Recover the amino acids of this structure.
């Protein structure tokens, strides 16, 4: 979860007219959770959908509007953006095909602001930027750039002086040596690297690093901001998220011409989006009976502006930095938040439906009841386990298992094919407990077959006792078979996990669904168990499932 | 002669108070004197008398009584004990040749003293020269050095010493002289004897004492009619029992199922090995959503869906992601089909809701569904995370349902657990809008985030063919179970400690 740390004094001075208790309430409405609060700082965990709240400017902007019930959106959207006259030429850009740029003039930077800016940039990288893959941001000192600017892909042999290093390195070297280069090398090709070049040379190597030449310092007055990425909308909206902050800082935004072949666009595009929301949808979704004036006010609280209202339809202007608004339902949620979730009266609708147990659960309740009646303790073990427990420790080889591509450890790298190994594991951990130990588990098992995966619900039971034999587990099986009308039968069958001549297969309609018998002493040795164990297991239910009917 | 039939004996036996029985048993052991009975039963005397009287009324004992007289000193007796009898004082004052008038006698000395001294022949009265003189006789002289027998008796009475018959004769004398000695008559029990009925009852009592455990012989032979069981020590420790029982976590799951079934929700189950498509894409989670990375979802090795039957649905989902299709959404701008067709371990039960919705038709509505099942996430194991965990969630599919109704269900579910306080807060989930979290107030832990939910986005419902709103809520059951079991480490939910499973009290979410 994105976590932001704001200076409290700065936050209060930006929001104005708010005390701490009100602030703490309002943070909840913006889906934030205060993690800690001290004299100087407040740490808030936010949801990833609102990157505009990740900076102190964006956060205070939203709250200011919310508590004052007036939108200050016009400050951002209703201003002319002068043209800087700078052009960015795009030639051959396949790896990161989309860019957005802007000029910010007359900024007043100090050490704290630069630090905040870098934090904000990093949070945008991680969230909307998908760790720089989708969007990467570079901020430069405009006065150290000599236009015209070219965005293109070049050979990794070319050199630049990266941030933090006082020597020229080839791009190749940066990818191998520089900390950021090593981390993000997978995002560029080893043949071609995306770069921004001016008259002097390469000043940005997105998404890896900027040049030390154009580094932003406290002396910087004018900025060149460039974004690159793989998704056009994300690149443009992320630029808008940043620019809103500079507008709040009284920076002057100027535009850049981006020329790509014959196509020229003006960047940034800070025009608001227009989404139509009808009164009926709002009231239907929220279960309210709001009037036009009320809705207009609630929209303003959330920093929307209503352009026109006709036929009970609002034409809503959406701030250009609201990357989360995809659909009118997103605006309706904001109306609900402005109205106050706790002002919505909970109500049960009049819907008559019949409660019904799942077939599988009903069956398992009965199986469970029989086992409990027979004195068995139910246990729960993990379905993810190790290959060793499923096969080698059970005297099996070449067992086909469903394997996890990205396991967290060897102990959880395959899906269990059967539960008996887990029960033996359980027994081995309870050797100091009172005997006899009678345990059972009902749960998922899975195995691959013919390019498919079978998932079943298995019933498994084991008895560990100094005085136990095949007849005991057969007695348990027969009780289950009779009471649950399983209609299965036993046939003699050897299995290397059981003592030869003391095991049987459980057969249903000519299919082998399980087995029972006396566990082989070599396995008891493997699990370090010192008493005889008898066990049974069978699959009682196959959910309606196989690979080909999923879709 | 009376013949006692069994029922009468039994009636008597039943009527006996335990203290009466104990007195009977002591009598049976040969102690017949009252003081012995008191000592052997260690009852106080009143209790023994009470018990004996009851036994006598039931004709089980005969009581031998005697009368005893107890003497006390009267007012004068007390005085005489301190100062001596007046006749003794008199003779000690006598001097020869001194007339009575000059002897300085007290009143009692000149009245009782003179008359008793004369009576005893201790003195004589003589008249000389018109004056009266008291003359000590020889007998009287001997009493100047001898103890006076009456005084002796007073001393004995006062100190409670035994009295002889001659003492008693003296007392009789003394009683004639006014308030010197007083007497009180007592009836005392000198002995108790068992009657023949008492003996019979005692025999039965003795029989009862001998039995410790009931055998089938005692039952069948009818001997039970005569037996009484030796009482056991109820504080003595017993062996702990092992029994068959549900897993503690299952108790909680069943409690939740019961509530949801009673609210009219239909239960659904679905295997946890799932297609990425249902787990994410059908829920409008963009292909590059962070929660779809290998750090958040377990991918199955070597399996990939290549046969697609429902091409129509695939196309709708693709268009919804890319451009919003007909949902009114902008979409995400792109979609990765190959990712959607990978097999995974379900990371959220919402996958099942998506499957369920895809099978509904207009005639099936309204519907309420819930599922409690296993999900998987590649989390490192610690007190709050396990790679396998359970989720509970439900959906309501019906015309005209809204956010207030969703809150209504959340409130009702909380109330089913006897939780009255619920608070709602805006929330974010990728597949619902509006989204909400219900916080419930726990008496000791404070507000707990317990009920996440929302209304499914049109980008989720419309491609699945659902044209009505779908309310969706979840229940953090692992967390609730931890609260109910009073544990703060999720690993304990899957504890492999047999003793804990065997002996923990049955947990309940209802407070």
């Amino acid at each position: 979860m994105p976590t932001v740390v704001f200076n409290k004094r700065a936050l209060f001075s930006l929001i104005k007219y708010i005390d701490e208790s009100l602030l703490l309430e309002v943070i909840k409405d913006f889906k934030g959770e205060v993690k800690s609060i001290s004299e100087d700082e407040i740490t808030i965990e936010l949801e990833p959908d609102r990157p505009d709240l990740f900076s102190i400017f964006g956060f205070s902007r939203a709250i200011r509007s919310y508590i004052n019930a007036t939108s200050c959106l016009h400050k951002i959207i209703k201003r002319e953006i002068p043209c800087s006259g700078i052009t960015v030429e795009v030639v051959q850009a396949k790896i990161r095909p989309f860019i957005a740029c802007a000029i910010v003039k007359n900024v007043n930077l100090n050490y704290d602001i630069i630090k905040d800016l870098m934090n904000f940039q990093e949070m945008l990288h991680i969230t909307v930027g998908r760790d720089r893959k989708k969007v990467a941001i570079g901020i430069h000192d405009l006065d150290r750039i000599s236009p015209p600017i070219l965005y293109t892909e070049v050979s990794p042999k070319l050199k630049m002086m990266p941030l933090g290093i006082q020597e020229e390195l080839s791009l190749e070297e940066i990818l191998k040596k520089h900390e950021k280069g090593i981390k993000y090398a997978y995002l560029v090709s080893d043949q071609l690297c995306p770069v921004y070049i001016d008259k002097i040379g390469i000043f940005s190597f997105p998404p890896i690093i900027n040049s030390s030449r154009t580094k932003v310092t406290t002396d910087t007055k004018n900025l060149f901001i460039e974004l690159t990425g793989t998704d056009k909308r994300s690149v443009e909206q992320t630029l808008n998220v940043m620019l809103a902050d500079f507008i709040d800082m009284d920076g002057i935004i100027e535009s850049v011409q981006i020329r790509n072949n014959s196509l020229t666009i003006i960047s940034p595009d800070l025009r608001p989006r227009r989404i139509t929301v009808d009164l009926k949808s709002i009231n239907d979704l929220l279960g309210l009976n709001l009037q036009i004036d009320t809705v207009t006010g609630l929209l303003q609280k959330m920093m929307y502006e209503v352009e026109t209202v006709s036929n009970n339809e609002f034409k809503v202007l959406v701030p250009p930095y609201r990357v989360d608004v995809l659909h009118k339902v997103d605006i309706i949620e904001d109306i609900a938040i402005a109205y106050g979730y706790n002002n919505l009266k909970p109500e049960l609708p009049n819907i008559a439906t019949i409660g019904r147990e799942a077939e599988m659960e009903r069956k398992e309740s009965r199986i469970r009841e029989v086992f409990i009646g027979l004195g068995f303790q139910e246990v729960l073990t993990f379905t993810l386990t190790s290959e060793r427990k499923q096969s080698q420790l059970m005297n099996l080889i070449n067992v086909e298992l469903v394997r996890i591509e990205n396991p967290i450890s060897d102990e959880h790298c395959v899906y269990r094919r059967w539960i008996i190994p887990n029960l033996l594991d359980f027994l081995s951990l309870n050797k100091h407990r009172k005997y006899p130990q009678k345990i059972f588990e009902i749960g998922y098992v899975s195995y691959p077959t013919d390019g498919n995966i079978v998932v079943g619900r298995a019933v498994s039971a084991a008895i560990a006792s100094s005085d136990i034999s095949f007849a005991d587990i057969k007695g348990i099986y027969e009780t289950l078979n009779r009471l649950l009308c399983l209609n299965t039968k036993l046939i003699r069958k050897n299995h290397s996990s059981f003592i030869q001549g003391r095991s049987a297969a459980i057969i249903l309609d000519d299919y082998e669904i399980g087995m029972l018998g006396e566990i082989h002493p070599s396995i008891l040795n493997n699990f370090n168990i010192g008493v005889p164990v008898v066990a049974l297991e069978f699959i009682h239910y196959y959910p309606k499932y196989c690979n080909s009917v999923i879709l | 002669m009376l013949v006692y039939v069994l029922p009468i004996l039994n009636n008597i036996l039943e009527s006996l108070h335990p203290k009466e029985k104990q007195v009977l048993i002591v009598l049976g052991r040969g102690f017949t004197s009252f003081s012995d009975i008191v000592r052997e039963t260690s009852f106080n005397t009143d209790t023994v008398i009470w018990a004996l009287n009851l036994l006598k009324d039931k004709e089980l004992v005969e009581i031998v009584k005697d009368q005893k007289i107890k003497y006390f000193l009267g007012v004068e007796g007390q005085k005489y004990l301190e100062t001596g009898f007046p006749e003794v004082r008199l003779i000690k004052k006598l001097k020869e040749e001194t007339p009575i008038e000059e002897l300085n006698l007290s009143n009692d000395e000149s009245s009782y003293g003179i008359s008793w001294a004369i009576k005893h022949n201790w003195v004589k009265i003589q008249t000389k020269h018109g004056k009266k003189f008291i003359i000590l006789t020889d007998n009287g002289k001997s009493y100047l050095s001898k103890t006076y027998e009456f005084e002796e008796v007073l001393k004995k009475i006062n100190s409670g010493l035994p009295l002889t018959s001659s003492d008693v004769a003296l007392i009789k004398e003394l009683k004639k002289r006014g308030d010197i000695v007083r007497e009180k008559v007592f009836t005392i029990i000198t002995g108790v004897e068992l009657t023949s009925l008492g003996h019979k009852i005692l025999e039965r009592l003795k029989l009862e004492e001998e039995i410790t455990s009931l055998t089938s012989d005692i039952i069948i032979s009818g001997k039970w009619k005569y037996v009484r069981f030796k009482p056991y020590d109820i504080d003595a420790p017993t062996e702990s029992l092992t029994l068959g029982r549900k897993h503690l976590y299952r108790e909680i799951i069943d409690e939740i199922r019961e509530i949801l079934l009673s609210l009219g929700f239909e239960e659904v189950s679905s295997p946890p090995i799932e297609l990425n498509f249902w787990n994410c894409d059908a829920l409008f989670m963009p292909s590059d959503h962070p929660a779809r990375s290998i750090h958040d979802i377990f991918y199955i090795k070597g399996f990939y869906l290549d046969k697609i039957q429902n091409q129509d649905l695939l196309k709708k989902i693709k268009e919804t992601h890319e451009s919003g299709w007909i949902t009114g959404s902008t979409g995400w701008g792109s979609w990765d089909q190959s990712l959607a067709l990978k097999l995974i371990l379900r990371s959220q039960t919402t996958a099942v809701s998506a499957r369920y919705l895809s099978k509904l038709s207009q005639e099936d509505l309204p519907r309420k569904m819930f599922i409690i099942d296993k999900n998987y996430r590649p989390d490192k194991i610690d007190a709050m995370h396990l790679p396998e965990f359970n989720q509970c969630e439900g959906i309501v599919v019906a015309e005209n349902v809204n956010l207030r109704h969703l809150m209504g269900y959340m409130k009702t579910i909380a109330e089913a657990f006897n939780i009255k306080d619920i608070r709602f807060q805006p929330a974010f989930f990728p597949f619902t809008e509006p989204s909400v979290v219900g916080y419930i107030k726990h008496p000791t832990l404070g507000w707990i985030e317990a009920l996440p939910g929302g209304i499914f986005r049109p980008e989720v419902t419309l491609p699945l063919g659902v044209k009505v709103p779908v309310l969706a809520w979840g229940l953090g059951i692992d967390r609730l179970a931890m609260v109910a079991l009073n544990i703060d480490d999720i690993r304990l939910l899957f504890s492999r400690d047999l003793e804990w499973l065997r002996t923990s009290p049955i947990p309940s979410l209802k407070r």
